[in-house]
Specification:
- With 52 residues, the chain is an all-beta fold.
- Helices cover 0% and strands 44% of the residues.
- The chain has no helices and 4 strands.
- It is rod-shaped.
- 0% of the residues are buried.
Length: 52
């Protein structure tokens, strides 16, 4: 099935833990680590060839 897409949108959650602060001599955060499986969602809008 072919689709002539006229609109596309995509969102994603990388599943990264970004609030990693520890008792250290610096206020900087540590490198993010994977906390969950990444998820992606998308949407296509359009029409198939031959339809108005």
């Amino acid at each position: 099935m072919a689709l002539d897409a006229s609109k596309f949108s995509m969102t994603g959650d990388l599943g990264m833990k970004t609030d990693r602060r520890f008792l250290r001599g610096t206020a900087l955060k540590k490198k993010p680590v994977r906390a969950a499986v990444p998820t992606y969602e998308g949407e296509l809008e359009g029409s198939s060839p031959g339809s108005p």
